[in-house]
Amino acid sequence: MNSKILIVFIVILVISNLIFLFLAVQYRRVVAERNKSYIQTPSLPKYKNANNEFKILLKDIHYYDNSTIFIGSSIIENWNFENLFKDKAFINRGIGDDDSSDMLKRFEEDVVGLKPKNVVIYFGANDIKKRLSSDQSKDNLKQMLKLSYENKINSLVLLFLPVNYKSNAALRYTHSKDKMRALNKQLVKSCEQDNTAYINLFSTIRKRDDFAELYFNDGIHLNAKGYQVLSGIVQQKLDAEERK
């Protein structure tokens, strides 16, 4: 009788281990697929032709000697500089869905190689969506700032915009308030420690009475009014930095 119980126990144990192994394999597969979805096609070639044309212009048109390059995600890519800024020597190097790691990979090609006077760096929300650690985000920023400093490029960091949870409840899971506040706090501290010029958009925009009116229904991208407000804030800061 005891031997029969032992056999049953062993069979149950083996089956349990097989089930556990199967579930572990399935979990790893799901995680791998999820992480794969966050890996985008390298964005480096997007501006390759435009960069080559710009380098040719640099040789002949000194107007571009004082250019300002904006690098970042879709918030930058969708920004219509020509209609919103008084300075036309603003160059857009935004790519939708880029996080700080993507930006760092193309920083030399899209920024340093064009020899601008200034660079405006924007990131944050996609770092949170793609689950980059705060340390990784800070390190990526430090490396971009180091490249700027070594190439005598003035840097301005735009600390990422808040999101509008009321218009898109799903953002509470993909861009949780706690994670956004924590990353914002870390980046503010990093900029102040390095004496880097920055604008805390997360705090500035969130305090506005018309906050909800600045976004499309997705709660994360700015509408025309939002970009007007953002452009005014950035232009004021650039003018102030210029006077220093």
Give a brief rundown of this model.
By secondary structure, this protein is an alpha/beta fold. About 55% of the residues lie in helices and about 10% in strands. The protein folds into two domains: about 40 residues; about 200 residues, Rossmann fold (3-Layer(aba) Sandwich).
Q: What is this structure's SSE topology?
A:
Elements: H1 2-38, H2 48-60, E1 68-72, H3 74-77, H4 81-84, E2 90-94, H5 100-110, E3 118-123, H6 125-129, H7 134-150, E4 154-159, H8 171-174, H9 177-193, E5 197-200, H10 201-206, H11 224-243
Parallel strand pairs: 1-2, 1-3, 3-4, 4-5
Walk me through this protein's architecture.
The chain has 11 helices and 5 strands. The chain is an alpha/beta fold and 244 residues long. The model is unreliable at 30-42 (pLDDT under 50). The chain starts with a helix and ends with a helix. The longest helix has 37 residues, at 2-38. Strands 2-1-3-4-5 form a 5-stranded parallel sheet, sandwiched between helices. It is elongated and about 90 Å long. The protein has 2 domains: 1-39; 44-243, SGNH hydrolase (Rossmann fold), CATH 3.40.50.
